[in-house]
Structures are given as structure tokens and as C-alpha cells.
Amino acid sequence: MTTLLTEVPRRAANGLREFGRMCALALDVLVAMGRRPYQVREFVLQFWFIASVSITPAILVSIPFGAVISLQLGSLTSQIGAEQFNGAAGVLVVVQQASPIVTTLIIAGAGGSAICADLGARTIREEIDAMEVLGVSPVQRLLVPRVQAAVCVSVLLNGLVSVVGVVGGYFFAVVVQGGTPGAYLSSFNALAQLPDLIVSTVKAVLFGYLAGVVASYRGLNPKGGPKGVGDVVNQSVVITFLLLFFVNTMLTALYLQLVPAKGS
After folding, report:
1. What is the pTM for the complete model shown?
2. Cα separation, 136 vs 145, whole angstroms
């Protein structure tokens, strides 16, 4: 019992310490983004890599997301006699919630894990230490272009997933459930508004930054040699998922408090 009482506070303190270091790294990356030299070539390479491994999974995941949302909303609205709002409700859910979440999950699972593994391999080979000895900032040289690439890909994929999800929802609502195309399209203006698209883009930027920073931090801190690299890759994905849903809850609650619903 005594060991348990001392172990829990120690692990909690270690967790808080790690979180503080990750926040410090996030600030360092943010500050370094405005400094020269800009790693344009590295940014382009990382952008292309993350986009190439994320586009196809994002599209394949967004189609069933849009379908499930449309089918569930169609069943619910038919029970309460509000079929005319099926399209608007589906678009709000896809654009505000599903699209940035799906985008970040794909980037963290595909691109973020690769970033973490690459930085982890460089760390255990002592390349990071060698760069610091030579006076080259690893944050400026390696982390900034990777985080910037993750943010840009997240924004672009967010738009792509939104379009694919809305089109998939339209197909299942109109073709599968026999809805009216005109009613589905005209209901967009009933509930949807421009701030919904803006908050979706803001979420994509923050979530992409979050995924890039978490992957970079865990990649710079592996323990136990090559096996430790595999461990930190798994940890980076799990930590990103947990932070993603927490931050999304906070942003959604703040948005609903600051932006009144259309027609209210």
C-alpha cells in the first residue's frame, strides 16, 4: 500500500513534467516558424509525403462517415417529422465535427507515425546531438517543416473530407432513403452558416499542429534503443487521439457559446 501511495504521485508528476516539456516544444516550434532560414525543400518533401499517405485513407474513411451520419439523421428526422432539415443537419455534423476529426486521425496515424519514427531513428543514431554540437537547431531544421507540412495537409484534407462526406451523405439521403434532392439542398441555408466553415478550418489548423508537435516530441525522446522508437510511435498516436478529442470538446463548447445558432 505504501508503494502504491508513493508511485501514483510520482507518475502523475512525471506526466505533468512531460506535458510541460511538450508545451515548451510547441512554443519553440511556433517561434521558430518566423525565423530564417526557411527549409523550403524539406517542407515540400514532407508535405508531399504526408499528403501521399493520407489522401486515399481520408477519402475512404469520409464516405462511410457521411453515410452513417445521413442514415442516422434520416431515421431520426423521419420520426419527428423534420425531414426538411436532414441536409442541413448532416452538413453541420460533417463540416463542424467529422471532417477535422477524421483528417487529424488519418494524419496522426499515417504521417505522424512516420515523422515520429524518422526523428526517433535520428535520435538513437545521435544525429540530433551532432546537429546541436555543430550549432544547427533541430527545431528549425527538422521540426518546423514537418509541423508546417502537417498543418497544411490537415487544412487541405479537411476541405476534401468535407466535400466527400457531404456528397456521400447526399447520395445516401436522396438515393438510398428516397429523399427529395431539392429539399436536401435548400435546407443548407436553414441552419448552416459561414462561421461553421471557419471553425472547421480553425480546428484543422490546430489539430494538424497538435499532431505534428506530439509526433516530433515523442520522436525526440525515445528510450531503449530501436525498441523504444516503436514504443514512442505508438505513444504519439495515442496521445494525439486523446488530446484531439479533449481540444475538440473545448473548441466546440466555446464556439456554441460565442456564435449564436442561425435563426435564433
Report:
1. 0.89
2. 15
Nearest to 236 by CA among 213, 215, 220: 215
Cell numbers describing residue 181: 434532392
What CA–CA distances, in Å, run from 197 to 8, 41, 57, 168, 247?
43, 31, 22, 18, 18
- Note whether 202 and 158 are within 8 A (CB): no
Give the model confidence (pLDDT) of 152-206 as tens digits: 999 999 989 888 888 877 777 777 767 677 766 776 666 777 888 889 999 999 9
What's the mean pLDDT in 209-231? 86
Say how far apart CA 130 and CA 128 lie, in whole Å.
5
The amino acid sitting at 71 is: L
Q: Map grid coordinates 500500500 to a residue.
A: 1
Contact 187, 84 (CB under 8 A): yes
- DSSP notation for 2-39: HHHHHHHHHHHHHHHHHHHHHHHHHHHHHHHTTSSSP-
> How confident is the model over 2-12, as a mean pLDDT?
65
* Residue among 33, 227, 229, 240 nearest 154 (CA): 240
Write out the three cell numbers for 150: 502537417
